Fold this protein.
Amino acid sequence: MSRFFSKTHANLTPYTPGEQPRGEKLIKLNTNESPFPPPQSVIAAIARVSSNLQLYSDPQGTELRAALAAYHGVAPEQISLGNGSDETLAFAFAAFGDAEHSFAFPDITYGFYPVFAALFKVPFTEIPLTDSFEIDFRDYLNLGKNIVIANPNAPTGITLPLGDIEQIIKSNPDNIVIIDEAYIDFAGEGASAVPLTARYDNLLVVRTFSKSRNLAGARLGYAVGNAALISDLETIRYSFNPYNINSLTLAAGAAALRENDYYAQNWAEIARTRSLTISGLRQAGLTVLPSAANFVFAKHPTLAGPDLLARLRERGFLVRNLGQPRIRDWLRITIGAAGDMEKLIETIKVIGG
C-alpha cells in the first residue's frame, strides 16, 4: 500500500478471484467456467464487428437489450447491461445502499457481496445458513433491509424455491431484493425469479453470460427489473462508464441469444454430469450437498480441505477452497467435461485410500 492510498479504503479486503493458471497442464475445475466453447455463430459475430474497433461501442447496447427483452418477455427499458454481473451488482450496491439503507445476505455466499458493501460504505448483516447449509427464507421476512441472495447459492449450489423468494419480496416492500441468478439456467425450468419483476417493483434479478452462455472471457452481465430500478442503475452506469460493454461482447451476447438449442444441450449435459459426479463422490466417501448449479460442494471424510486441495493439484486438478472457517474443509468443484470428472473421482479414491 502506498502512502497515497486513501484512508477511506485502508481496511478494504478485496475479492480474491479463482486462480487462472498459465503454462501448467491442469484440469481446471475452480472457477465454474463452462467446459464447452461458444458456438461458431458467436465467434463469427465477433469477427464481423472487429474491423470497427476504432469506434466506441453503443452505450445503450440497443441490439442486445432488445434481444434480452424478447428472451425474458420484458421491455428493453427493464434491462441494464454490465461488464460481467459483478459490475451490475456493484452498481446496485452503489445505487441502493448507503449509511441509512443497509444490506443483508447469507454468511456463506458469493464473496463479492461484503466487498461491495465495504467499498461503498454500506452497513451489512450476514445471516447464517442452517446447519445443512440452506437459506431459511423466514430469516429474511420483514427484515427492513436491502437483501441480496444468490440462487442457486454459491458455493453450496442449493436452490431456494421461488415461492420462498416471493415471500421475502412481499414482506420487504420498502427495500430492494436482489436475486443473483448466475447459475439459474442449470436449475431447470421455472426456477428464475424474472417473471416476478412484473409484480414487484422492489425486485432486481441479476444474471450473467459467463456460466451458462459459455462467455466468461467476454465479461457480460445484466439486470432485469422494474423500469424505475433500471433507471437508477443506468444513472450509476453513466456516471461511471457509459461504454462499459465493448463492441465485441455486445455482438457475442446478441448472437448467443440466438443459439438457445445449443445452450440447452450444454445445460442438460452439465446436469447429467453433475448427477454422476455427485453419485461418484458420495461412493468415494465424500459428503456432497445437493446442487442445482454447474458445481458441487464436497467434504472428504478424513482429509482437511486445504490438504485435499493440495493433493489434487499435485495430481493435475485445480479446484477451490474458499477458506472461511465454517467451510474450511469443503471444496467447490466445477462440473467439467464428463471424462475429466471421472478422472477426478478416481483420483480422489486413490488419495483417500
About this structure: The longest helix spans residues 260-283. The chain has two domains: 13-37+260-352, 40-256. Residues 40-256 form a domain with the Aspartate Aminotransferase; domain 2 fold (CATH 3.40.640.10). The chain has a mean pLDDT of 96.
